Amino acid sequence: MTGAAPRPRRPRRAPKPPSVLLSKAGVTALLGLATLYTLLPLTWLLLSSTKSREDLFGTNGFALGDEVHLADNLSHLFEADGGVYARWLINTVLYAGVGALLAAVFSVAAGYAFDKLSFPGKERLFSLVLVGVMVPGTAMAIPLYLLAAKAGLVNTFWGVFIPGLVFPFGVYLARVFSASYVPDEVLEAARMDGAGEFRTFCRIAFPMIAPGFVTIFLFQFTQIWNSFFLPLVMLSDQDLYPVNLGLYVWYSSALTQGHPEDYLLAVVGSLVAVAPLIAVFLMLQRFWKSGMTAGAVK
């Protein structure tokens, strides 16, 4: 009995070459474009802030003027309208700095509770937190205004400050950080030694979640610092404006009321407003890097 003839082997197909976008050159090119997209506006802002009003409108945006007027522009910025820009800057530091700090504390405490503590309805409450993450902040501005109107907080410092204390995405991140950084065995040992829940959180869990705390602080600090629509809806007193809203007033004045000097103020003020963000990120860089990779390995 003869066996069946062996089937001819199909030739193996050569592996497909990687996509151009996924190649090393493609990835490098994409990163280069992203870098240019980030640096070009900052470069324009820096160069424009060194020009006089005549050079600002009479030269190319990426060209230097005849002389460097940065010192004069900064002096004029902080003297314009009775020094109101310094007031706007202080307001923004209070809104963003103090607000983000308290929001990070509340978020870490809530995330730790959702991760390590057991209480009725925990997962349903956490589902509501996730719903809050998906709702954009601009959609909440009008409801917040109506609530503030009933509470008498419209056109007050608290009308902008209090909403910044709520950060659902920070609560979600804090739960992830707590699950990654805080071992259950350490908490059990602390409880066996007689430590209460509050002391366990403050003395043991919170130092372990420090990178996550800094990451949450940076996210909320940036979000409040760049907030525009809520202050626009909530405030009418210029002394309570944050920097973004004040710069918008100057920019609108330059376009609609024929005050070209206000355009230069808006440009120089934007440069000054960016500086604190860069400084905060550089100071907290090492915490931020470790915090961003915390969820990668458990």
TrEMBL record:
Residues 89-284 form the ABC transmembrane type-1 domain. Keywords: Cell membrane, Membrane, Transmembrane, Transmembrane helix, Transport. It is found in: Cell membrane. Pfam families: BPD_transp_1. Belongs to the binding-protein-dependent transport system permease family. PANTHER family: ABC TRANSPORTER PERMEASE PROTEIN MG189-RELATED, ABC TRANSPORTER PERMEASE PROTEIN MG189-RELATED-RELATED. This is Carbohydrate ABC transporter permease. It comes from Streptomyces zaomyceticus.
